[in-house]
Amino acid sequence: MKLAVMVNEGPYTHQASDTAYNFIVAALAAGHEIFRVFFYHDGVNNGTRLSTPPQDDRHIVNRWSELSKAHDLDLVVCVAAAQRRGIVDPDEAKRNGKDSDNIAPGFRISGLGQLIEAGIQADRLLVFGD
Amino acid sequence: MSETKKFMYINRRPPYGTVYPLEGLEVVLIGAAFEQDVCMAFISDGVFQLKQGQDTIESGMKNFSPTYRALGDYEVTRIYVERESLEERGLTEADLMPLTWEDEDDDWAEKPSIQIVSRTQLSDLLEEQDVVFNF
Predict the structure, then answer these.
(1) Which of A53, B40, B72, B89 could bond to B101 as cystine, CB 3.0-4.6 Å?
(2) Which residues of B are less than 8 Å from A116 in CB distance?
(3) Alpha carbons B58 and B121: distance in angstroms, whole number
(4) Which residues of chain A have pLDDT under 70?
(5) What spatial distance separates the first Cα and last Cα of chain B, rounded to whole Å?
(6) ipTM
(7) What is the CATH superfamily name and number for domain B6-134?
(8) With bands split at pLDDT 50, 70 and 90, how would you rate the model's confidence at B2?
(9) Domain spans of chain A?
């Protein structure tokens, strides 16, 4: 089955990102296709490479980046939600006059159209959040 | 993209305590460009999002309620409000903004977008959907 996933909460504060990750790992292992993972609301905070959790805890951001690399996952961060919360790629930094970027490897910033398209293209859209 | 799916956007939170309603509305407006079969539902404290006369000056929050009036121009013409949720909060349809849309097949007649539906009716509508977002 072709699945799309939406993650609406940030890392550590809320379990949504962990559950989405675990779901995707299981879905891939079962042979399903992940069309796209879309990060919205505070979910965009999953895409900062500046996160430094304690060493005895899981590294949620790196885990997403590694999963993306291993399975060629499309991890999309909503641009409008990202701008509010300070998640920035090099293009956005330039456009908005910021002194740096912080997007993690494997993530890209794009518009909400990517979420709607995922809803249309996928057999199921799964939403993780409150 | 020729495929058309049924999209429902459910709103269940009060308008200003969190950013979900504002960002949820942004999804609806962007989604309108994709020409899908779209409707919205307002349940629970979400019915407060449609209340008339919202004033956010004292709280410093952005009053985005005028945006709901633009939904008709985005061809979002079916806005379901759950009757029980209104009643539980002491509200009636008269407390809500009069949202309308213009029907091009009926000489651009202005028609109401809001439909008050029962919890049971809403449950049936939910059953019909292909894609459900809830904010």
Answers:
(1) B72
(2) 7, 27, 30-31, 34, 36
(3) 38
(4) none
(5) 26
(6) 0.94
(7) DsrEFH-like (3.40.1260.10)
(8) low
(9) 2-128
A39 is catalytic: no
Query: Of A4, A37, A61, A78, which residue is the catalytic one?
Result: A78
Question: And the tokens for B60?
Answer: 């410093």
Matching residue, tokens 């939403």: A127
Question: Could you tell me the CATH superfamily of domain A2-128?
Answer: DsrEFH-like (3.40.1260.10)
Whether the Cβ atoms of residue B51 and residue B16 lie closer than 8 Å to each other: no
CA B104 to CA A80: how far, in whole Å?
A: 32
Q: Are residues A122 and A6 in contact, defined by beta-carbon separation less than 8 angstroms? A: no
Contact (Cβ atoms closer than 8 angstroms) between residue A6 and residue A40: yes
Question: What's the pLDDT tens digit per position in B32-77?
Answer: 999 999 999 999 999 999 999 999 999 999 999 999 999 999 999 9
What's the token pair of residue B84? 């029980």
d(CA B36, CA B38): 6
Closest CA to B85 of B73, B93, B77: B93
Q: Residue B121's pLDDT band (boundaries 50, 70, 90)? A: very high
What pLDDT does B3 receive? 76
Which candidate from B19, B33, B131 shows the least CB-CB separation from A41? B19
Helices (H), ranges, chain A:
16-29, 60-71, 79-85, 90-95, 113-121
Tell me chain A's radius of gyration from C-alpha atoms.
Answer: 14
Q: What pLDDT, in 10s, does the model give residues A85-94? A: 999 999 999 9
